[in-house]
TrEMBL record:
Leader sequence residues: 1-24
Name by which UniProt lists this protein: Flagellar hook-length control protein FliK
Taxonomic lineage of the native organism: Bacteria, Bacillati, Actinomycetota, Actinomycetes, Pseudonocardiales
Alphabetized UniProt keyword annotations: Cell projection, Cilium, Flagellum, Signal
Amino acid sequence: MRKLLTVATVLIGLIGLSAAPANAVDTTKGYDGICTGSDALTGTTVVVDFQELDGNGGTAAPTITRCSPNASPGTARTGIKALQDAGIAVAGTARWGLGFVCRLEGRPAATETIPLSSNPNYKEPCVNTPPAGAYWGYWHADGSGTTWTYSSYGALNRNVVPGGFEGWSFSLNKSATTNPVPGVTPRNPAIP
């Protein structure tokens, strides 16, 4: 009985966290835009591109670009920590925790219909791993060029590159070769 109550509490907590609207970042952490100034080579720029997820009554949700400063330059941070330091709300799954990112800034919400090709009325409960047709793709770039690289590691198991970029792009009904890259060029002007 105690185990059942614990699982129910976790699920209720995840559903409660999912109600946040897009772009409701914690402005006490990080700042808008690409990392600049003293953070240019020690911070990491985080990009969250909602792609085909509706935003506000059918219009696209705005892409979020925020600097994730490193409070202890020279120390390693995971992709999850970079999201948190940028003020981005991140929720994992009940089964795997932050090992699988399920929601960013409350999206997709638990009540939101995601039109999967195989299930047009799908709603993401964030219990198990999100389906291959509707998930947050994880990308990275070192900041010296213009190309994103799809991460072969989860954000909890990958350290960010100081001065680089971390990208999240919602992939809906795409394949491994057609997942959309984030819609921001990953170029850090401070890197020669």
